[in-house]
Amino acid sequence: MAMRELRYFGDPVLKTVSDPVTRFDSSTESLVTDLLDTVDAPGRAGLAAPQIGVNLRVFSYNVGGRIGYVINPELVELSEETHDIDEGCLSVPELWFPTRRAKHAVVKGVDLRNEPVTVEGDDVMAQCLQHETDHLDGLLYLDRLDKDSKRAALKQTREKDWFWARR
After folding, report:
1. Which of 23, 31, 73, 106 is such that its CA lies 20 to 30 A from the CA of 67?
2. Residue 39 burial by Cβ neighbours in a 10 Å radius (0-12, 13-18, 19+)
3. pLDDT greater than 80 at residue 65
């Protein structure tokens, strides 16, 4: 099992748009294995490659007994119906804020054999798909908060021991 060290808010890799995977080889397989191993811990719903310092479009998920990964994911469908749902992030630990998300989401990408895969879900699974795809686009959930919540969140992050700029 390869639990990888997490990157935290303030680390530039989290604000960088990830590159598509173009080689489907043992290094890609190792990355997927590491993502699956690292997300397989209590309280973890999803993990994107940038969160372990890898600038590639891959994420893993572990929601309600559904465990998997998607390479080169793209959000292809979001429901018009939205809700504010408490959201946190492994790269912004200990902080939770209501975040507006579509109630249903569909992601399309490929697997390790470069074969098409589709993952869809409602509520928490939809939130996970949106959250992890955001990571690959250089966005954190904090970027989606309303002005007052974002200001409070940024103030709180700067006070945390894990804040990257404080290291």
Report:
1. 23
2. buried
3. yes
Q: What is the pLDDT of residue 164?
A: 62
Written as six digits, the tokens of 142 are 């904090």
* Active site amino acids: 132
Tell me how crowded residue 27 is: count the other CB atoms within 10 A of its CB: 12
Q: Determine whether the annotation assigns residue 131 to a binding site.
A: yes
Q: Extract the tokens encoding 16.
A: 């960088």
Contact 130, 59 (CB under 8 A): no
Determine whether the annotation assigns residue 89 to a binding site. Answer: yes
Bridge partners for 118 per DSSP: 108
If you search the block for the tokens 């690959």, which residue do you land on? 136
User: What residues does each domain of the chain span?
Assistant: 12-158
The fold of the 12-158 domain, in CATH, is: Peptide Deformylase (3.90.45)
Question: Residue 135 annotated as binding?
Answer: yes
